[in-house]
Amino acid sequence: MAISPEFAALGDESFVSLTTFRKSGERVSTPVWIARDGDDLIVTTPEESGKVKRLRNSGRVELAPSTRMGAVKDGAVAVPAFARIHGDAASVEKLGRTFLAKYRLEYRVFMVIEAIVAKRRKPRVMLRITPSE
Prior knowledge:
CATH topology: Pnp Oxidase, Chain A
CATH superfamily: Electron Transport, Fmn-binding Protein, Chain A
Number of strands: 7
Largest sheet: 7 strands, antiparallel
């Protein structure tokens, strides 16, 4: 399957709005970091996040370039996609290095702050995102 230019370009963004769907079909959008792993895109998130819960019901997602606060950029069109959850330690560690390479110090600082605020190390998962067919 050919990757659309719109999907591929999302990997170059600093933040995207990731929209997941409740069982009712209601949209829930969250700003997230995004990185590229081959032709796929990846997102990191705590295992207990709402987006992971929603993805366990349906892997359907939409992505759009956004600001750090989640405002979708003017003129941006949502790209439909499919997300799979990867929680095994090897995947989380390998793909975590991908985020570290892209976001560098900002990623390290965020992980330290998360550990302090959570007062424990929250298990993280990686979301592997592929284009919708």
